[in-house]
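Mods, move this if it's the wrong board.
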Amino acid sequence: MSRDKASTMDADLQKVFGNPVPELYEAAAGHDAPPALAHALELRSFLALTEEQVTRVRDRVHADMDPDLDMDELSADKLRFDAQWLEAALEARDGYRAALGELLRTMPPPAQQSRPVRTAQLRATATLPPSAAPAPQRAGAAQARRP
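Not the wrong board. Structure tokens:
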């Protein structure tokens, strides 16, 4: 699972959010987790997965180019496919790194992240139309004297 794999931006996440990545995943599971944390961890998971793909293709190309292998085992088609795969994986990795970096740059400082957001409470007011007939006096109510 990509949440258990390291990514190249884990240190940046820890710096911005103030906790190691495993603790950030635990915090994100809470009902009061900031949406930015969930977005950052989602991007981080995609990045970790993509970086794993880059590593697999790189290792496969290295293995295919092992000097101890028979030259007859080399396949230009296979290497072309791996080059295309590597290009796609590197492009995806660069995109996830850029998106996560931008999110982390636009985050408020950690001290401001934990402050609750205050919202203005709106009050509904209604005015009643004036009545056609005057309101009856209450029984037993004294009327004010006029000088």
